[in-house]
Amino acid sequence: MTVLANPDAIKENRRYVDRDLNRCFSKDDLANLELTSYEDKRTQDIAAQLTDVDFIIDLHSSTANMGLTIIPSSSHPTNLRLAAYLSEIHSDV
Hints:
38% helix
């Protein structure tokens, strides 16, 4: 499944509309139905779609000069093996 996380921001050619989407995924924010920003509502919708998944790959663009970068959410062996594999098959990672 592919999810375009922030289509309104993409339409506006901006990083976000109201709030940085990446900062809206905390457990507290996801559980808080009183949050009303566009991004807060999007994260709740996205989280509802991702209830039965084994692995999530979050792709980003960036204005930072950091090349192709992998930022794992933890040092779980699967994350580390995936990062090592991607580094092996693409020298820029």
